[in-house]
Each structure stands twice: as C-alpha cells, then as structure tokens.
Amino acid sequence: MDDQELAELNRSRRAALDPEEMRSIRDYFAAQGRACSDVEFEMIAQTWSEHCFHKTFKALIDVEKGQAGGLPGQVDNILKTYIKAATDEIDAPWVISAFKDNAGIIEFDKDFDLSFKVETHNHPSAIEPFGGANTGVGGVIRDVMAVSARPFAVTDVLCFGIPGRGEGTSALSVEQIRSGVVAGVQDYGNKMGIPTLNGSIHYHEKYAANPLVYCGCAGIAPRGAFFSEPRVGDRILVLGGRTGRDGIRGATFSSMTMDGSTLETAGASVQIGAPLVEKKLSELILSARDAGLYTGITDCGAGGLSSAVGEMASELGADVELSEVRLKYPGLAPWEIWLSEAQERMVIAVPPEKLAALAELCTANDVEYCDLGFFTGSGHLLVRFNAKPILDLDCEFLHKGMPRRRMKAAPPPRLEDRPEPKPLPGSRTPGIGELFPMIMGHHAISSKEWAIRRYDHEVLGATRLGPFSGRDQTGPSDAAVAVPLETGMRRGVAISNGFNPRYGEADSYNAAASALDEAVRNAVAVGADPDRIAVVDNFCWGDPLKPGNLWTLLRAAKACKDAAIAHRTPFISGKDSFNNEFEGPDGEKIAVPPSLLISAMGIVPELGAVRGSDFKRSDSLLYLVGEFAVVYEASVLMDILEDRPGLAAPAFSAAAPAVYRAFHRALKAGLVAASHDLSEGGLGAALAEMCLAGDLGAEIELEGLRASLRKPAGPEGEGSEASFDGPAGQALLLFGETNGCLLAEVEKNNVSAFERQFAGLPLARIGKTSQAPFLRVCDGESLLASVSLEELRRAYLRESAEILGQAEPSLAIVREANREGR
After folding, report:
1. Which architecture does CATH list for 37-46+227-386?
2. pLDDT tens, 295-320?
3. Could you list the active site residues?
C-alpha cells in the first residue's frame, strides 16, 4: 500500500495513527511475507494509540526558544525528564510502586499499603455523559482492584461549560452533559458501596463541548499483597462481565479530536456499566488474593482483552482461544471480541494446579469466568478463533516497534508579546460589601450541594471528614479523611486535589505549581503529615502536534518537577489525555484550557488533629499563615469584574514547605481549632466559608494584613507592584489570590504556643470570630463592610437552588429538593 492508501485505511478505521506508524505496520507485514489481518491491525492501533502508549510523553521534543520558558533546547521523554525525575530525586523510602502498575502504592503503616489512581473519561462523557462518567468511575476502581487492593474511596473532579457562555457546537447542551455526568458518578459509586469523598466542579467556556471527567480511587491492602509476575504455563482467565460491542475502539476514539459528527460515528465507543457485577468481582478478587490463587492481574480497560492480555504477555507471549469468551449476544466478529471495552472484566494469570480452587471461588461469588489459554514463553502473541489463527504478532514489535515521535515545541503566538500583568482592578471596583455576595455566588466558589449530596459519603463507616464541615455540614472541607477499618483505626488517609483552569489558560507553569501546592495545603489543612504526601498528575491538553500546546505542556511538566521537589512529594502515578478539542462546523478547533489536576494522598498520623473548616467558638483569634502575595490576574475577582485577563497567575511560594510543616506541628499540638486554605476567591472567600460552616461571624482588620504583605508579582517573579489603598486595593487584599497560605482559628489560651510554632515564618493576626451573624471588615477606623451570614448563604446556595429548580436559595429548600431528586 502506498501512503495515500495507508492514509485512507487509517481514516476509515479511525485508527488515529501517524503516517510513519502506518508505514511501520506495512513494512513489518511485508517482512513477514503476508497480509495484516483485521484483528492484528486493530490491536496495533489500540496498543500504539496516544491513550495507551502515551507517545507524546515519551517523544523526543525539539524546543524552540526554550530559554525563554526555562526549558532546554531538547526534551527527551517528558515523563522521565520531569515527572518521574522528581520521584527519583526525592527517593522516598515509603513509596512502594510508582509508574509501574495500574495504581501507585505507598506505605500506610507496617501492616498495610495504600494505592491511588486517577483516570480521565473525557471523550466518552462528551457524547454519552451518564455512561462516560459511570464507566470512568468503574474503570478507576478496577485499577485499584488490579493492584490487589480493596477500594475504600472514590474521587471526582468535573469540568463543564458555563451555561449561556459555551463555545463550540456540541450535540448536547452544557446542562445535559452536567446532569448526566453527575448522575453517572452517583450511580456507580453508590451501587458499589464505596464513598465518594473528595472532588470539585469547575466551569470554563471551553469545556462546553469538551467536558473533563477525572475519576479517582484509593485502596488498602496488606503489606506486600500486590505482585504481578505471570509464569510460563499459567492459564489466562477472564473474570466478571460478558463481552459485547460496547466500547469498541474506545482507545483510538479517545486519541482523536471530536466534531459535530462524533456522536453518530463514535457512539459505540462508550462503554456500558454494571456496578453490581463489579461489586461481586471486587469481592472475588480479594478472596483470590488472600488464597494466593493468581500470579498476575490487570483490568480490561481501554482496548479490552487486546490491551489486558497483550500487556500481561508482553514479555512471555501467549496462546489464546478467543471463542471461549463469554458474550452478551451472538454475532460479534473476532476483532470485536478482542477489542471490546465491555466493562467489569479482569484478567488474571492462574497456575494450572489452582484452577479448581479459583473455579469454586467464582461459583461461590456468582462471578463468571472463562479460560482463554496460557502464557507460552515464545515472545509471540498467538490468538485463534475456533482453532484458526487470526493474530500472530511478535511482542517485541507490538510493544517496542512503534516509531518514536519527534515533535516540536514553540512559544504560542500570544506569548511572543505578552502584556504586562494587571496589578489592580479598575477604578470602578464595587465596594467590599457588594463584592462579598458576588464572590460567594461565583460558579468557582458557590456551593455544589446539588451534586455532592447525591453521593454517599458515609458508606463503609470509615469517613472521618467528608466533603462538608460543620455541625450542620454547611461549609466545604479542604480534603477528606478516611480511616480504613481493617487498619485498627490508628491513623487516617487524607485525599485532596488542586486544579484551576483560569490559571492554566494564563500561565501553565504557575498553574501547575499552584495545583500541586493547593493539593498539598488542602491535605495539610485537615491533618496530613507534609512529609508523607504522595501526588498523582492528570494532564488534559489540546492537540500536542501544535507546537504552542506542547510548549505549555513542557512548562507545566517542569513546574510539576520543581514544586514536587520543593514539597518533597513524590509522584506515584499519572495519566495524560490529549486532543481535548472540538471542531465546529466552520472548521475552527476549540481546545480546553491547559488543565492539570494534581491529586494528593497523605498520611494523617494523629486522628485527634483532624480539623474541618468550621469556626468553633466566638472570640477566637484568626491567623493568616504563609506568604501573602495576592495577585489580581486570573482571579475570580477579575472574572466577576469582566476584566480581560493577561498572562499571569499566582506564583509558587518558596516559604510554603516550611509553613506547612509548622502548621502540621501546630495541629498535632492541638493549637488549631479550625483551618482552611486560601484558594479561589482569596482570603475573603475562605473567611466567608468558615463563617458559614460554623454559623459564626468574624471581624477582620485590613491594616495588620496590609503590613504583612509580600509584594505581588507576575509569572516567576515578573510583574509590577500594586498599591493596597483605596477600594481597588482593599478588594485585592480580600479577594486577590495567592499560593502557600492557610487560615487558622486559634483559641486565646493557645495564642502564644501557636505563634512560637511559626517563629521566622510569615504569620499575621487578622481578626477574631464573633457570635454576631455578620462578617465585618475594617480598615483602620473605617468599617468597610458588614455582611450578614444570611446574605452570604443565599449567594453561596444560589447555583444549587437554580439547578434544582428552586427560586429560594435556602439550605433547607436546597436539601429537600435534592432528597426528592429534582
């Protein structure tokens, strides 16, 4: 076949391969002296897809004008150069497995290990929101099952368009996507009996046709329980659900740009979930693990059996009889059976002498299984259908024969002439009293009760701190804390995340550093030991073949390394998702903003130190700890004032690692009554959330705060100083955004001891709590604002009330509407 014929084959099969990759396939079979079968072509396309092979992260990248972005002239493998390099340099002895298995693994204590994985299910959720999100949750749960762990917590970070402000021409509205995705997450986690403990919801115009759905899962297992080393002669068993046409070509579909025809052409690429089947499968896997019945295990995710068996057999080779696969219905072609991404399936390697015991266990747990063949040691993957060979591939070619990409990164055109960051809002800035409800009602901050209340947070009985804080559960928690029951309830696990699409669009370096810092400080705020936090990265980007997109990706990856090393937080797992773009009818492609999610898992050594964000009593003192370096750029305040953003975002705070360690010592000493991090909406939003969570007021003095400021700056130190006098400066003090800061409530008898913990570190006493139900802000002798908690609560609940179809944004009405499923 010539290049034109190869291109047509690539297009018609939706293989999403490069011309050089297509030529390599042609040349391989030419050397074999035979034609490529349908099954072989589909398997190679799946194995070499961006989704499965991560070829951009493994590419050799030439960097134009790299010095301008702090980058070298050439990057040889993003993963090794930046992400894994951070883990290698930190060299934490408590990391058990990083970037090798289906999930990362760390030590919990001397008896147990923790596992953590976060996946994305973006393209499927764009065309079938319920099914896409539903199976996204199911898939990441199986990733944890595939390291022989018991899943005990689920996370979800969801990104949607802004209703009425969307870009693109998706076949589905923002509202349809949003409601379907949330329902899908709810359905799977709740039916599995696993609590959904942590997550967030974000909005941006460019997510309208490209929603992002990040699903995570944490697991617990006895120390050393996981191993995966199939041996020659071990049988290959498929456990769980039956195989159908659902999900076929999902891996290649997820590696392509979507357009208006995607719903019709790729509808079958969305899987169908059955959580009750997976629940039984999960229980079976744990029983088989404890009985020592398997030597290797993985899940059927993207690529189905093709990927699962192919990866397990990558070193040994295998002989497979495909006609043994249990089907949902007759009529599937062999390549469809091999590539199907039907859910709720695991593949395990079982020694022949243990087959009978495994079969008995399957019967006892009502789980179907089939024996597909065995591992051969030949280095070839041979697949038959009714004894007739349909696939015979050299494993070396399949897994190492793909031509390595050589790519180009260059500064996007908009960075060539970067405008100066804006230090302050304009002269017509509203007063503080008017801004407070505007900030609390903004979609980045407002309560997500409408979604979160649909998830079960308490099932399994291990939740120490869930998504809400306070006696009435009215304020947001910074992170979740779970105490896996089998561990003896001696210590806990904090799970948190950091994410901000506005920062990503402005400056991908500072956005990435901010995401990691936010994930760490959220975990520290609830009691996690900053010396025992591991992180997981999830990159969602546009087309990596565009040099500007690759430039922002490299900058983000570099920031991940820099921030991780500063915090001593190793990466243990990660995932990349590219081509998150939508091509409109006019041919214009709209990509998501550079979107990096950092998820953190930390050990909470003292359960008594776990703190929520709710104020506990009146007349406590309020402290701001950390370098207070607020910026206006990319902030919620800037968005509210409809100011055109430049290209700056809050920078990483060099003091943050020391501040967080001091804060952890203060928590362990019992010196902190309530804690909350500063993030979107700045100090003002954090104060209001703590007031609402504790149903207590607060009185804040800006004069002392102003004296503690570190002058704000643009990206990596660039920018101009701002004045903090007048309405604009006062607004920036309260609602500007910064990294590295936490807010603490400290009772009066603990003040001296608390301050001693922060000797030599940035610390400011900014006010006190109050019994009066108002948030008051003073500047010297002037009372700038006195906003009632009721006004703040109404603004905070407005989004939930509107989504639930309620005119009155009160807590009781919102919760009643959620209970009734409106």
Report:
1. Alpha-Beta Complex (3.90)
2. 999 999 889 999 999 999 999 999 99
3. 51, 121
